Structures are given as C-alpha cells and as structure tokens.
Amino acid sequence: MSSQQTMTYAWVVARTRSRNACKTRADLLSAARRRFGTEGYDRTTIRAIAADVGVDAALVLRYFGSKQELFAAAADLNLDLPDLTAVAPGRLAGALLARFFAVWEDDETFLALLRASMTSESVAETLRQVFAAQVEPTLSAVVPDHPRERAGLVGAFIIGLATTRYALAAPGLAAMDRDQITAWATPVVDQLLTGPAPPVPDSAAVRQLPRRRPERQRASLLPSVP
User: Fold this and answer.
1) Which is it for the CA torsion 48, 51, 57, 61, positive or negative?
2) In CA terms, which of 55, 141, 171, 196 is 20 to 30 Å from 9?
3) Residue 146: CB partners within 8 Å, gap ≥ 6?
4) Domains of the chain
5) Residue 146 region, left (φ>0) first, then alpha (ψ -120 to 50), else beta?
6) Could you tell me which residues come within 8 angstroms of residue 149 by beta carbon, excluding any fewer than 6 positions away?
7) pLDDT by residue (tens digit) across 5-22?
8) C-alpha dihedral over 133, 138, 139, 142, to 10 degrees?
C-alpha cells in the first residue's frame, strides 16, 4: 500500500470512528432521557441505559463520567413559562404557579434534576443555568424594580416549595392539593413580584451605629452595691 493510500485509509477510519462516537453519544443521551423520564433518577441505572443502546456500561462512564453527569447532560428542561407581559398584574402569581405545577407533576425531569442537584455540583449548575436562562428573564420583564432581587427571591421560594413538597414530602405541604397551595402561595409570590420594595439600610449609617458593650464590660461600669 502506498503512503498516499495509507493516509487516505487512516483518514477514513478516523472519520468513521468519530462519526460513530458522536452517534453513540447521541443515542445514549436519548436513552437516558427516556429512562430518567419514565423511571426517575433513583431507579435509572447506567447498565439499563447502556443495554438500551447495545453498548457496555463502561462506555457510558467513559463518555459521561458518572450517572449524575449523564443526567445533567440529558436533562433538556424547557419550563415553557408563559409571556407574563400579557398577564394582568393581579394574575401573575396564578399564571406562574400553574405553569410550575405542570412542570413539577407532569414531567419528572425537573424533580429528578432537583433531587440530583442536592448531591452533585454539575447537576446544580444545570439547574442554575435553567433559572438564569428561563426564569430570571421572564420575571424581570414584569417587575417594577429590583429585577435581580425579585427574580432571585421568587426562584428561592419556588425551589423551596418544590423541595419541601416533593423531595422532603413534608406532611403539611404533601397533604395539600394544587388549589390549596396556590391559594396560600399566591400572596407571597405577588408580594415578591410587584409589592413595594423594602427600604435598604444605609450601609454608612449602619457602620456609625454605637456598638453595644459586652456584658462583662457593662457590668464593670455599674456602681458597686455595698
């Protein structure tokens, strides 16, 4: 075989291997989405995903490193939040909560992502990216001021509500239905979105406040009692 033929053959082999690697990775992601979506994060195994594609489990770990990293790569979460600019101010919280309930209860991807984020920094980063790309811009478009703070606080409340109800299954929340939770949560979300912003303390004034004397020092200044 001539040197030119050898080079051509090597290029074809390398191109074929690269194409097959890309296809295998895509197939693994597709299988992972199906498994995580139907069985949840805990019940899904690397071995089952590998079997769906017809490869060895070690290959999955070679591509993604771990189950958590595979989940982070496979979690293509679209919250599909409504355009809140077309919603009346008094109905913002209801529209937002209705959409989040749909995400929580009709699609297991978010809850699996939420549970995994508690133990995996890579999954937590995926969740942060979802918030930064989808939630924050949607909320910032309708708040009267302090968009970053308001969006952050609404996000914290929503994540806390989902964690307490679905991940921790706290009795008080787990026993309530959508309508009950919406009725309790709506005033909170409304306040965070459109309520008056609290006064921000003047940091310079705070630094000038007199410091309280320690108990021992104050005691030493008191007159002695005979």
Assistant:
1) negative
2) 55
3) 197
4) 3-65 (1.10.10.60), 84-197 (no CATH)
5) left
6) 197
7) 444 434 433 443 444 888
8) 150
